[in-house]
Amino acid sequence: MKKSICFCVACLLAATAFGQSISINSGSAWSISPLSSTISKAGKNYEHVETSIASHTLLKVNAVVVWTVQVHQSVTSNWDSSLKLSVQRTGTGTGLAILSGGTSYIQLSSTSQPFFSGLLTLFSGNRDNIPIQYKIEGLSVMLPVKTYTTTVMYTITGL
Fold first, then answer.
1. pLDDT tens by residue, 125-151
2. What are the φ and ψ backbone dihedral angles of 142, each rounded to 5 degrees?
3. CA 6 from centre of chain
4. Are 76 and 34 in contact (CB under 8 A)?
5. What does the alpha-carbon distance between residue 100 and residue 121 come to, in Å, rounded to a whole number?
6. Can you tell me the distance from the alpha carbon of 110 to that of 59, in angstroms, rounded to the nearest whole number?
7. Please, what's the b/e burial string for 138-153 (b: 16 or more CB within 10 A of its CB; e: otherwise)?
8. pLDDT per residue as tens digits for the range 39-93
9. Could you tell me which residues come within 8 angstroms of residue 68 by beta carbon, excluding any fewer than 6 positions away?
10. What one-character DSSP code corresponds to residue 38?
11. Please, what are the domains in the chain?
């Protein structure tokens, strides 16, 4: 019995030695039409919410056993604090890992937070082409006209 437990632990440690990885295939830069086309009355702010296509980014996760994808926003010097960026998983992609969470928008901040997780099935902990969608709030005619950029960071953790 003791030998079989040691063997199982050794197998688990060997499997985790392969590590985990996450690959990101992001579509072209997401650009939003100017709000000027929707203005019909002077003196109104015209706040606007915009969403990307449902599969703007595709994630590929290679992992073993149990894993979690964490997400946070790395703000650049030309980002306006009134802009709020959110992210959600819009599908499961392909592969045999079981996914959970991430199907509702979560607002990003500079602090890493759990996005979604995966569980190894009998054959694989991998998942390909997991579709990710973005939403930006706080767009307003009151914002200065310029290009705003930010970086979304994905991190995988687990066994």
1. 688 999 999 999 988 878 888 888 899
2. -80, -15
3. 37
4. no
5. 13
6. 20
7. ebeeeeeeeeeeeebe
8. 666 666 667 788 999 999 999 988 878 889 999 999 888 899 999 999 999 999 9
9. 114, 115, 116, 117, 118, 156, 157, 158
10. G
11. 43-158 (2.60.40)
**Token pair 């009355």 is at which residue?**
41
Rounded to whole angstroms, what are the CA distances from 52 to 23, 49, 145? 20, 10, 20
Residue pointed to by tokens 């003196």: 43
> What does pTM read for this prediction?
0.79
Q: Provide CB contacts within 8 A for 97, sequence distance 6+.
A: 61, 63, 118, 119, 120, 121, 124, 125, 126, 127
- Indicate the helix (H) or strand (E) that contains 6: helix 2-17
Strands 113-119 and 66-75: antiparallel
